[in-house]
Amino acid sequence: MGAMNKITVGIVEDNFEVSQSLELLLNSTDEYLCIGTCPNTVTALETLPGLNPDVILMDINLPDESGIECIKKLKPHLQQTQIVMLTMYEDSEKVFEALASGAIGYLLKRTTKENLLSAIKEAHNGGSPMSMEIARMVVKSFASV
Of the CATH numbers 3.40.50.150, 3.40.50.2300, 3.30.1330.10, 3.10.310.30, which one belongs to the domain with range 3-142? Predict the structure, then answer.
């Protein structure tokens, strides 16, 4: 695959080690290319609209504003970009708030590298990747009590 065929990914993550390991993982593949990492909402809003990534991996717990607020501000500028939450939070309130704000997927940080890469591809191809526990929570929310 040439560089033009790679799925481009932006990362919004305040933990430098996590951000760096995600970037290294993506850039070690033939299918993905990390085109920008942002440690906070302000940087994401300044940087990502100009880069126009195919997919953004978004943390929730950012130092200036939550990743959920960041989605609300980014979405009007990046309507074709698929935003996937990548976070340690698995409480239903945060999950539903993120999805209602425009995230199309929700992954827990403990997901395997293989699952993360396939989730990025799934998001890019029109799917809504979710960690197993999150998918079950979403399905249960539709079940009548």
Answer: 3.40.50.2300
